[in-house]
Amino acid sequence: MTGAPILKDALVSFDCEIEHIQEVGTHSVLMCRVVAIKPPESPSGQDESLVYFNRAYHYVGQVELV
């Protein structure tokens, strides 16, 4: 989608576009919109891929946007 590189051995890859950059002290916090998700290639990898969303951890593919 965006052409960002993907790490070969990553459990999951998120392709994002930066929406906002917030400067916090000496750090920059990036607020991004996910435009694509490359899920694990093996079914066993899906059990290990977690995302933090809506104050809880979820397996990748489990979160449903409303």
Structural features, described:
With 66 residues, the protein is mostly beta strands. Helix content is 6%, strand content 48%. It has one domain (13-59). The protein has one helix spanning 43-46; strands spanning 13-24, 27-38, 50-53, 56-59. The chain is globular and about 40 Å long. The two termini are 23 Å apart.
Features of this protein?
1 helix; two-stranded antiparallel ribbon
Largest sheet: 2 strands, antiparallel
Helix content: under 10%
Rg on CA atoms, Å = 14 Å
| Structural domain tally | 1
Shape: globular
- How widely separated are the two ends? 23 Å
**What is the structural class?**
mainly beta
Helix-strand pattern:
EEHEE
Q: How many runs of DSSP E, i.e. beta strands?
A: 4
Unreliable runs: none
Enumerate the strands of the largest sheet in spatial order, edge to edge or round the barrel.
Answer: 1-2
Task: Determine the number of helices (DSSP H or I, runs of at least 4 residues).
Answer: 1
What fraction of the residues are assigned to beta strands by DSSP?
A: over 45%
Mean pLDDT: 81
Quick take:
With 66 residues, this protein is mainly β.
Q: What order do the helices and strands come in, and which of them pair?
A:
Layout: E1 13-24, E2 27-38, H1 43-46, E3 50-53, E4 56-59
Antiparallel strand pairs: 1-2, 3-4
